[in-house]
Amino acid sequence: MSIESIIRAMPKVELHVHLEGAVRPATLLQLAKRHNIELPADNVEGIQQWYTFRDFPHFVEIYIKISDCLKTVDDIELIAREFLAGQAEQNIVYSEVTYTAWTHYIRKGMAFEDQMAAINRARAWAEAELGVTMNLIIDIPRIMPADEALLVADWAISAHGNGVVALGLGGPEVDNPASRYKESFDRAWAVGLPCILHAGETVGPESIWDALESGRTLRIGHGVRCLEDPKLVDYLREKQIPLEVNPTSNICLGVFPSIEEHPLPKLIAEGLYVTLNSDDPPMFNTTLTDEYLTAARVFEMDVKALQGLVLNAVRVSLLPADQRAKMEADFKSAFDKLNAGLN
After folding, report:
1. Least C-beta-crowded within 10 Å: which of 53, 155, 184, 226?
2. Dihedral angle at the C-alpha atoms of 70, 75, 81, 86, nearest 10 degrees?
3. Residue ranges of the alpha helices (H) in the chain?
4. pLDDT value for 224
5. Domain 3-328 class?
């Protein structure tokens, strides 16, 4: 068995992926047909070509068009089912998925409770039929007013333990500090709901420090620019605060000039706690499986190192401790069987 075959077959966990950003071309076509919405193309190949990353404004254009096609809670259930089916195809047995409920509430009037009911129907279906599941990180978009973000915090708190595992922070970092939303993070932490913030992608170390101080973030969504501050690297290493690294996304968004220059190997060499993720996979023409294949091909990471990244994700997921322990044992057993056949 080749290393590629093992990567494809091995069980995985994903911690940084956006539900709306994971809508595949075929699903978008189905939604557009359902609501009689015109798209730039009328077939999967054409949509995939349109999806192909050009620049950030184009990326935003696609995101808005996807959101425009999500008009009902049935649409939310559809994209959740299709997402979970795609995860199952890659043997991703568990995902922690960032979801921006506020967009659908403010633009279409979808009640949060109805959105969650739709997603929970998809979760139940996937667990029963596909043997995979997910939980949600309900995120505050950095562009929203701080007082309105308190509503998002209350939503996340209300669904904690019923499909939601954390309050998040996403959206454009530039001129939108995490500290703006400190009251929301404090409200979540006060009742035991963890916070997991995006930081250190398009803004440097100061954004990561802000996420740590204002949000007490358990993990850093991205965090790759920590290397610009040796004191921050020391702190992250000492505390073993996990980084949710998304190499292809970083290259597409211009954080680094090429995949060969991505600091994934350096982050690992520095003793930082690294997990591998896909972010908005169809928009960046990637999958989580592709991220592992790239790490093997470009950085010559061996099977043991790649499986170590998978186990990292298992260990810092927000599943209950007993479920994490069982998953880790199951994964190790599966790895041993796969590795026995390595050419």
Report:
1. 53
2. -40
3. 3-9, 25-35, 44-51, 56-69, 73-89, 101-108, 112-129, 146-158, 182-190, 205-215, 230-239, 247-252, 264-269, 288-299, 303-315, 321-339
4. 98
5. alpha beta
Which residue is it, tokens 């559809």? Answer: 78
For residues 186 and 192, give the distance between their C-alpha atoms in angstroms, rounded to a whole number. 10
Taking the C-alpha atoms of residue 185 and residue 204, their distance in angstroms, rounded to an integer, is: 21
The type of residue at 155 is W
Rounded to whole angstroms, what are the CA distances from 92 to 8, 132, 191?
A: 10, 7, 30
- Are 88 and 68 within 8 A, CB to CB? no
pLDDT in tens, 259-281: 999 999 999 999 999 999 999 99
- Is residue 172 within 8 A of residue 195, CB to CB? The reply is no
Both tokens of 28, joined, read 């978008």
Dump pLDDT digits (tens) for 79-116.
999 999 999 999 999 999 999 999 999 999 999 999 99
Give whole-number Cα distances, 7 to 91, 175, 304, 310, in Å: 10, 39, 11, 10
| Rounded CA separation 315/164 (Å) | 18
- Mean residue pLDDT across the chain: 96
Catalytic residue of the set 14, 201, 244, 291: 201
Residue ranges per domain, the chain? 3-328
Distance CA 221, CA 9 (A): 26
Name the token pair of 18. 């956006």
| 201 has catalytic annotation | yes
Tokens in use for 195?
């916070």
Q: Per-residue pLDDT tens for 168-184?
A: 999 889 999 999 999 99
pTM: 0.96
Are 318 and 96 contacting, i.e. CB atoms less than 8 angstroms apart?
yes
Asked whether 235 and 252 are in contact (CB, 8 A), the reply is no
